[in-house]
Amino acid sequence: MITFQGVEKYYGAYKALDGIDETIAKGEVVVVCGPSGSGKSTLIRTVNRLEPISRGTITVDGQDVNAPNVNVNALRSRIGFVFQSFNLFPHLSVLENVAVAPTMVLRLPHARARERALALLDGVGLANKADAFPPQLSGGQQQRVAIARALAMQPPVMLFDEPTSALDPEMVGEVLSVMKQLAADGMTMVCVTHEMGFAREVADRILFMDAGAILEQSTPDAFFTEPRHPRAQKFVADIRHA
Ligand code: ADP
């Protein structure tokens, strides 16, 4: 579903991604972890071209995302992206936030888009908030709306960039449980997260990054019990002592 071949990314002279070669299969749930500044966010932002790359190739569902003829808006509409900050439209109701892209981009009839939005809100446990406005919701609720909004475009892939990092601790669980359900439903997911409990329970594979490179990739069990790379060993030991 997603491939990286020889991907490099520079910010000026700084090499933020260094020789990324990776394949993420359809239905796979991958958690990207590693120390702060290791390039995790940069990596997933390259997938929908929020960050241009300096070298290499990235494909999503067979499409070269950096090909000159790619329509960036069409590309992004096929890749669900959930950010740390929820970025909902504050002046639109929760229902309209979820319905707006299918109406504007897919040209879905408004009644149909609202119907689909309501079903998605039901899926994230917020059908009863359909007519509320984002500022009236808690952070955890807003992030669940953001997930429903991303799903409204029926993307084959969902990317999550630290989706729970801005939340108060008591709201982390409700967002992770929506993500868990999505994984169980077979969605292809790449998640940058510090939630190692989620990684252990839900991920098919862990990618460990440091200094712009993927230093280790393994199952959660192998990663947490016997990390091989010395920097992965240090990372896991630090989590244990945190
Ligand atoms: P992570 O998500 O693992 O914390 P990032 O991908 O955000 O790491 O950042 C990787 C490195 O690239 C860091 O050293 C960061 O300072 C640098 N970086 C990120 N974004 C930019 C930018 N827009 N301009 C310059 N440097 C950046």
Please characterize this protein's 3D structure:
By secondary structure, this protein is of the alpha/beta class. The protein is 38% helix and 25% strand. The protein has nine helices and ten strands. The protein has helices at 40-47, 72-77, 94-104, 110-123, 139-151, 169-184, 196-202, 220-225, 230-241, and strands spanning 2-11, 14-24, 29-33, 55-60, 63-64, 79-82, 157-161, 188-192, 205-210, 213-218. Strands 6-7-8-3-9-10 form a six-stranded mixed sheet, sandwiched between helices. The chain has a four-stranded antiparallel sheet with strand order 2-1-4-5, with helices on one face. Strand 1 (2-11) and strand 2 (14-24) form a beta hairpin. Helix 3 (94-104) runs parallel beside helix 5 and helix 5 runs parallel beside helix 6 (169-184). The longest helix is centred in the C-terminal third of the chain and has 16 residues, at 169-184. The protein is globular, with a radius of gyration of 18 Å. The model has no long low-confidence stretch (mean pLDDT 96). Bound molecules: adenosine-5'-diphosphate (ADP). Adenosine-5'-diphosphate is lined by residues 11, 14, 16, 34, 36-42.
